[in-house]
Amino acid sequence: MDLRLRRPTVVRVAAATVAVALSLLLAACGRSGAEAPAAAPVRPVIAQTVVAGGHSNTERYSGEVHARYEAPLAFRIDGKISHRNVGIGDRVSAGQVLATLDPSDASMNAAGAKAAVAAATSQRDVARLQRDRIAALRGRALVSEAQLDQADNALKAADAALQQARQQLGVRENQVRYATLVAEHDGIVTTQDAESGQVVAAGQRVFGLAWSDEREVHIAVPEIRVAALRDTGPLEVTLSAQPDKHYTGRLRELSAAADPQSRTFLAKVTIIDAGAEVQLQMSADVAVTSTGNDDAIELPATALFHDDAQPAVWIIDANDRLELRTVTVARYVDAGVAISHGVAPGDRVVVRGVHTLHAGDAVRIVELPFQSAVAER
């Protein structure tokens, strides 16, 4: 047989054999990939470990030093200030003249009232003489009883007009005295709101006077911290001018209503051991330390997740896998949430990125600088 005729057949058989071998090899590779899938990646998470122990929280509020008793001083009449005798920081004594108004108008009004009293007195005297004359004529039956009654009524009206004139004179004389502003107590002038030559209205603030040596700090407290301030014990007061010295404070008064503008409550803290160095209008800080008295555990608000409608957190188990655990929220605090049930000391809680996690995920804890553990409260 001719060899040239058999060569193409041999080549075709060899090519077919190679193709079958390649198909089998590819099939084997496919079955190997299906039977051994790639391992799931380990996710990095930020977590904190709950530790047992007491928990205290200290908050500081800035305020200003005031006297316990202080009030604005004002004239009781309108007028132009002719003299101002004191200024801010001056010590005054009870009865000391602080400022005076131009007395011209008040003096003229008083003089007019005196003239009105004199006129009313004259009219009363005439009415009395007339009544006595008619009474004598009535005794001799020369006038009627009605005429006597008219004379009596005229005398009573004159007496009433005289009393009214005398009362008006008293008012005008008081206004003359009101033109002089005097201190009612020994104290210190804290504010000055008017100058000589200024026209002021009745009741307009001219000075502020503090007449008590007892010092206190006025602070503004948000409504969520009112209960903590009311239940706390002794407070710590620090003056900005003396940061190394600490004073003991006591809550004396807490406003029952919030300020309509700032929505904060005014608290007055008495400085128990205040000395002469504690001056009015100085800046001060009040430290309020609250200690937890229950078993609630505070967590950052970012750690809270939800399992349907139930609050939950992600717990990292001993095998470094995630477990979703429902919890009970006792209250919401400034730092986050307080958990009463569901979390125990030693649990590792994921505190960030909780909405991207799934139960059973393998995780690796990433430590952040300055990260602190969650404390049981």
Kindly report the average pLDDT value.
Answer: 84
Secondary structure class reads: alpha+beta
The percentage of residues in β strands lies in: 35-45%
Q: Give the N-to-C terminal Cα separation.
A: 102 Å
| Rg over CA atoms | 46 Å
Q: Return the CATH architecture of the domain at 45-55 and 295-375.
A: Beta Barrel
Q: How much helicity do the residues have? A: 25-40%
Q: Largest sheet, if any?
A: 6 strands, mixed
Number of helices: 4
| Number of DSSP strand runs | 25
Uncertain residue ranges: 1-11, 370-377
CATH class of the domain at 45-55 and 295-375: Mainly Beta
Instruction: List the secondary-structure elements in sequence, H or E.
Output: HEEEEEEEHHEEEEEHEEEEEEEEEEEEE
Return the CATH topology of the domain at 45-55 and 295-375. conserved putative lor/sdh protein from methanococcus maripaludis s2 fold
Shape: elongated
Detailed description of the structure:
The protein is an alpha+beta fold and 377 residues long. Among the domains are: 45-55 and 295-375, conserved putative lor/sdh protein from methanococcus maripaludis s2 fold (Beta Barrel); 103-178, Helix Hairpins (Orthogonal Bundle); 212-291, Elongation Factor Tu (Ef-tu), domain 3, CATH 2.40.30.170. The chain has four helices and 25 strands. It has helices at 3-35, 104-139, 145-178, 226-231, and strands at residues 43-45, 47-51, 56-67, 70-74, 79-84, 91-92, 97-101, 180-182, 187-192, 199-200, 205-210, 215-222, 235-239, 242-254, 264-271, 283-291, 297-300, 305-307, 310-316, 322-326, 328-333, 336-341, 348-350, 363-365, 374-375. The strands form six sheets. Strands 2, 18, 19, 20, 23 and 25 form a six-stranded mixed sheet that branches. A six-stranded antiparallel β-barrel has the order 3-12-15-14-13-16. A four-stranded antiparallel sheet has the order 4-11-9-6, with no helix packed on it. Strand 19 (310-316) and strand 20 (322-326) form a beta hairpin. Helix 2 runs antiparallel to helix 3 (145-178). It is elongated and about 130 Å long. Mean pLDDT is 84; it is low at 1-11 and 370-377.
